[in-house]
C-alpha cells in the first residue's frame, strides 16, 4: 500500500479536556506520523466552508457552533494507507458504536462531540489538507 496523507482535526471537546497528547499517541502507535500540526481557533466562516457538504443536514448549525466553541488542532498524518488507517484508529462516528480501543470509544463525549475528524477519501484528504496547510508547513 502506498504512503498517503490525511487531514485530522482534534475537536474542541478533546482540546478542552487536554487530550491532544493522548490522541497523538494513538496515531503514533498505529504508525501514523504527524508531519504537520497547528492549534487554531476556527472562524464561523471557516467551519461552515469546511463542513459545506453537510449544510443540508439537520445537525449542521450545531456542528458549526461546536467546532468554533474552542481551539482545535489541525494535523497532517502520513503513513501507509493513512486515510483508512486513521478512520480505523478513530472508530465509528457514534462513540457508542465504536470498537473498543478506538479514539472515539475511549474519549468521545457524544455523536457530535466525538473528539476527532479524519478525511474519508484520498481526494477529500488532498482538499482538506490544502484548506488548512501551506506546503511549507508540512515537514515529512
Ligand atoms: P468526521 O467527518 O468528523 O471525521 O466524522 P464522520 O465522517 O465520522 O462523520 P460525518 O457523517 O462526516 O459527520 C461529521 C460530523 O458531524 C457531527 N455529527 N453530528 N448530531 C448528529 O447526529 C451528528 N452526526 C454527525 C459529528 O461531529 C461528525 O463527526
Ligand atoms: Mg466525515
Automatic annotation (TrEMBL):
SUPFAM superfamilies: Nucleoside diphosphate kinase, NDK
Residue span, Nucleoside diphosphate kinase-like domain: 3-140
One GO cellular component, as annotated: cytoplasm
Active-site residues per Swiss-Prot or TrEMBL entry: 117 (pros-phosphohistidine intermediate)
UniProt cross-references to InterPro entries, sorted A to Z: NDK-like_dom (IPR034907), NDK-like_dom_sf (IPR036850), Nucleoside_diP_kinase (IPR001564), Nucleoside_diP_kinase_AS (IPR023005)
Name the record gives this protein: Nucleoside diphosphate kinase
PROSITE patterns to which the protein is assigned, alphabetical: NDPK, NDPK_LIKE
HAMAP family assigned: NDP_kinase
Record-listed ATP binding positions: 11, 59, 87, 93, 104, 114
Known catalytic reactions: a ribonucleoside 5'-diphosphate + ATP = a ribonucleoside 5'-triphosphate + ADP; a 2'-deoxyribonucleoside 5'-diphosphate + ATP = a 2'-deoxyribonucleoside 5'-triphosphate + ADP
Organism: Entomobacter blattae
Cofactor annotation: Mg(2+)
Gene3D superfamilies per UniProt: Nucleoside diphosphate kinase-like domain (3.30.70.141)
Entry's family note: Belongs to the NDK family.
Enzyme Commission number(s): 2.7.4.6
Amino acid at each position: 500500500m502506498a504512503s498517503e496523507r490525511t487531514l485530522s482535526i482534534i475537536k474542541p471537546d478533546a482540546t478542552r479536556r487536554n487530550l491532544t497528547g493522548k490522541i497523538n499517541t494513538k496515531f503514533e502507535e498505529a504508525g501514523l506520523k504527524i508531519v504537520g500540526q497547528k492549534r487554531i481557533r476556527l472562524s464561523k466562516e471557516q467551519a461552515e466552508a469546511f463542513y459545506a457538504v453537510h449544510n443540508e443536514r439537520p445537525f449542521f448549525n450545531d456542528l458549526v457552533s461546536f467546532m468554533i466553541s474552542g481551539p482545535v488542532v489541525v494535523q497532517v498524518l502520513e503513513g501507509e494507507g493513512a486515510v483508512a488507517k486513521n478512520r480505523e484508529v478513530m472508530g465509528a462516528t457514534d462513540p457508542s458504536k465504536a470498537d473498543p480501543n478506538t479514539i472515539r470509544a475511549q474519549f468521545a463525549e457524544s455523536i457530535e462531540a466525538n473528539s476527532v475528524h479524519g478525511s474519508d477519501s484520498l481526494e477529500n484528504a488532498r482538499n482538506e489538507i490544502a484548506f488548512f496547510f501551506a506546503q511549507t508547513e508540512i515537514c515529512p
